[in-house]
Amino acid sequence: MSSRRIRVVRPGDLGAGDIETWRELRAKSGAPAHPFMEPEFTLAVGRVRPRARVAVISEDDGGTAGFFPFERGRLGHGTAIGFGVSDLQGAVLRPGLPLDPQTLLRACGLSTWEFDNLEERQGLFAPDAARSYPSYVIDVGDGYENYEKALRARSPKFLRTTLAKERKLGRLAGEVRFVLDERDPAVLRTLMEWKSAQYRRTGRRDRFARKWIRELVEFLFHTRAPGCSGLLSVLYAGDRPVAAHFGLRSRTVLSCWFPAYATGFAKFSPGLILHLSMARAAAGDGIGMLDMGRGAAEYKDGLKTGELTVYEGASVRPGVGAALRWAGREPSRRAHGFVRNRPRLAGLARRGLERAGRLRDPKTP
Prior knowledge:
CATH superfamily of the largest domain: Gcn5-related N-acetyltransferase (GNAT)
Number of helices: 11
Pfam families: Acetyltransf_6 (PF13480)
Organism: Streptomyces clavifer
Helix content: 40-55%
Protein name: CelD/BcsL family acetyltransferase involved in cellulose biosynthesis
Order of helices and strands: EHHEEEEHEEHHEHHEEEHEHEHH
InterPro entries: Acyl_CoA_acyltransferase, BioF2-like_GNAT_dom
Number of strands: 13
């Protein structure tokens, strides 16, 4: 395909027809209706990331055959749109479109395109994946009752203990109630404060210390579209929020993004209670799948019903700049992968990060 038939625009310059075609192509892909792959997420990133771009790919007859959202950095280095916070990435293309990544990258002025959560069945970039990861999901497509029945059969102690803690929380802290779609922005700010404290406590980089991420979440909180809406879900004990989650939803998929809880209630496992409440309410609202994302966690092991696969890697055009960029990053990738694949080393690394976090912020519990 000639690069003359690929135009690169800012997300905000996409027209209404482009947006509608994007949605139609996505619906025809056969993939789960994941909100990160909808145009609204790219439009939101475009508001807070000046280097966000979209390649619009045209057919011979002038019709649109696909969209490729990306961010363009120095020396032609590109990343997935919203890189660092986007939980699913890739191009939105007409099935069977004859296109190769080298042609696409050249038209976009990119020497590399880096991804860390590439969607399954992204055939254009799949050969460039360096490794794969499970993304853990909760399937409530057959209703919450069937999910809980399966959970009870697989992990009876886990479910029994969580429900007992919920009852105890209600007795000691006030009636437990859950709101699937909380519209109070003050509660969103509380969630971000909890999450920032969690990042510091565990020695991780505080995402909400970055202005563009805060602005992105606040904008998406007000976004309402069939394929991508911000959803703030909150667990209350009495009138006090004890756990909350902000994510994105389509009609049928809830992408779990930022969960956190008040540490003073940790003994009640409010995060687990929150996720069970989310699964119950989401199923009642037509959502069939909750995607908890990549990254191993004990609570995910307890709640999951299955896994999707996401990929990490980069498409690289031949050239000195791209080769230097990739060579500089790949040793770090291999080291992280080596540690992740060895639970004992991963545990030591995690404890080291937690100690570092306490040294940086001795006030964190």
